[in-house]
Design a protein that fits this description.
With about 270 residues, this protein is mostly helical. The chain contains 13 helices and no strands.
């Protein structure tokens, strides 16, 4: 066991040195990926404005005018809050606005009780919580020249715990969808172990990197919406899944950047 632990620590040290030049870029890339699904959604609403209005009025019972206001408010909220999130300004308010969009769209489009939609959006919410945690930790470090703010410190560890648990729910929807093949079983086993390690906070950063790699490959191979020309509706659904997965990848990258927090095995090990 000692030899395995030594090899693991040496490997982590080597990977840490190799990834050091990329560290300044990770937060910006992570935040951009996290809000990518909201940016894509706002662009899609504008590009398909008449179709969106028709669906809400004909199939969801929205009165004329209310549907216009609903779509316009969605576009404005997603655009403004995404810009605020990327620029790290008023982060908690931005996350609140994006969370409201997730909930309202779920009810408005009748998808709130769809299991896959529900799990995917919980994972996106987990990514948003990681964004809040990053903001709290940055604020804590900046208060009084580095003196911690106890309220921010207490909040950040709970937010990080919730964010870690919600992020891995996407993998649950992956397990229950599609047919089982040899490759899929390998991905489920490796990804499932990585999810459990992220949830409990054991080797959380490296487990998150594994999940980033798995989800990125899966996204490019399965959600390749750019190859679908024959069915515009199916193309839109696959495109939606693609950008949602990108957002969850952004959440995992934020976990790599900020760490698992106080409620984790990694943090507890430091005290022994």
């Amino acid at each position: 066991m000692d030899q395995i632990r030594n090899v693991s620590e040496q490997t982590e040290d080597v990977l840490e040195k190799m990834s050091r030049p990329l560290k300044p870029c990770i937060p910006w890339v992570a935040r951009a990926l996290l809000v990518s699904t909201f940016i894509e959604d706002s662009v899609r609403i504008l590009a398909q404005w008449q179709n969106q209005l028709y669906f809400l009025q004909a199939y969801r019972g929205f009165p004329w005018g209310v549907s216009h206001v609903f779509l316009l408010m969605n576009v404005l909220t997603m655009s403004v809050c995404s810009a605020l999130a990327i620029s790290r300004r008023y982060t908690e308010a931005a996350v609140g606005g994006l969370f409201a969009v997730i909930v309202l769209q779920g009810f408005a489009y009748g998808l709130i009780f769809d299991l896959t939609f529900f799990l995917r959006n919980l994972s996106v919410v987990g990514g948003l919580l990681m964004l809040v945690a990053e903001s709290l930790l940055a604020r804590r470090r900046s208060v009084f020249a580095g003196l911690p703010s106890m309220s921010d410190e207490d909040r950040s560890k709970y937010v990080l715990l919730g964010g870690r648990i919600l992020l891995v729910l996407l993998f649950t929807s992956f397990v229950f969808s599609g047919s089982l093949t040899a490759g899929r079983i390998v991905v489920i086993v490796v990804g499932g172990l990585s999810c459990m390690m992220v949830a409990v906070g054991f080797k959380a950063k490296w487990s998150a990197i594994v999940l980033v790699a798995i989800l990125s490959v899966f996204n490019l191979m399965v959600n390749n919406w750019w190859t679908i020309d024959f069915n515009p509706t199916h193309r839109d659904f696959v495109k939606y899944d693609f950008f949602q997965t990108l957002s969850i990848v952004g959440g995992f990258l934020l976990l790599v950047n900020v760490g698992p927090g106080s409620f984790s095995v990694d943090e507890k090990k430091k005290n022994f």
